[in-house]
Amino acid sequence: MLASALARLHDTALPVTAGHHDQLGLAIARERIPAMIALYGGALFTLVSAPPGGVNREAVRSMVEVIVYGCAGEKGQSGAKTIDDRAK
Hints:
Low-confidence stretches: 75-80
Distance between the termini: 41 Å
Mean pLDDT: 80
Number of strands: 0
Largest sheet: none
Radius of gyration: 14 Å
Strand content: under 5%
């Protein structure tokens, strides 16, 4: 029962995640999206289990940028835009 619920969640998350990244102009290969979803899940667990006061906007932004730019192959490229820049 839990496995089927998680499979449905995963199947729903794939197109939603792809669409969101498309809207931001991020060229994420579709075959990498499942890995991104797993990384987002790990990040979420890390954030919700952090000690009180241990989470701030900059920590979250940094985590997301590492996930997105690492998966997009843009990490370390000069002129790479941040998440905030791409949303504009």
